[in-house]
UniProtKB/TrEMBL annotation:
<dbReference type="Pfam" id="PF00106">
    <property type="entry name" value="adh_short"/>
</dbReference>
<protein>
    <submittedName>
        <fullName>Uncharacterized protein</fullName>
    </submittedName>
</protein>
<dbReference type="InterPro" id="IPR055280">
    <property type="entry name" value="TIC32"/>
</dbReference>
<dbReference type="InterPro" id="IPR036291">
    <property type="entry name" value="NAD(P)-bd_dom_sf"/>
</dbReference>
<dbReference type="InterPro" id="IPR002347">
    <property type="entry name" value="SDR_fam"/>
</dbReference>
Amino acid sequence: MYVRLAWQNTGFTTHSLQGCVTLIPRKGYRLFTNMWLFGRKGPSGFSSSSTAEEVTQGIDGTGLTAIVTGASSGIGTETARVLALRGVHVIMGVRNVAAGKDVKEAIVKEIPTAKVDTMELDLSSMASVRKFAADFSSSGHPLNLLINNAGIMATPFMLSKDNIELQFATNHIVFTLWKQPIFIVMVNLEHLGHFLLTNLLLDTMKKAARTSKREGRIINVSSEAHRYTYKEGIHFDKINDQSG
């Protein structure tokens, strides 16, 4: 298998790439609570207080290319900065291009050797996602890391340009089995935000993995809040229902 999916659960902390172990439902909850809430180290040797620089100490990312969505602020900015610090060529997928350029300039000022580019990406717009993927694929750059970080939270109810509830359209990620994406829900969800982006970039990432003999990785940044959904489950047929 050339491409691996890794879930990076970051909780509500300000650091990125904190080295939290992959959670296993039920068994992993207490471990994660100890790491996040109490700052205790897990099997990886890191905790919620570990910084991205600490986690990546000694890693040489020269020759790798990473896409980081939502890189113009917060965790995305820190992820882009530290990846650049470790020699990775970083492509910042940002909705606000001006803010993205400011972040790029700040990174290059701190790290003169940094390789950072900004590209416009509005994950709530399927047209924007398709254009971003097409432009990146035609650039000739390899893709070794895809960090799906961008997201919005608790916004006023509104629909995206594609008439889908905005937060769902922007943030949506589902599990994928390589060779055959699987998502069994009888609504048109295959075109949402990060899910569409990931599928459009898979061939580029697989090609890079075959050429370089280095396994690609897709990281979906999430939070502990994913445990607190509706008890009866999500009503996918009412995603656009403001009252629901």
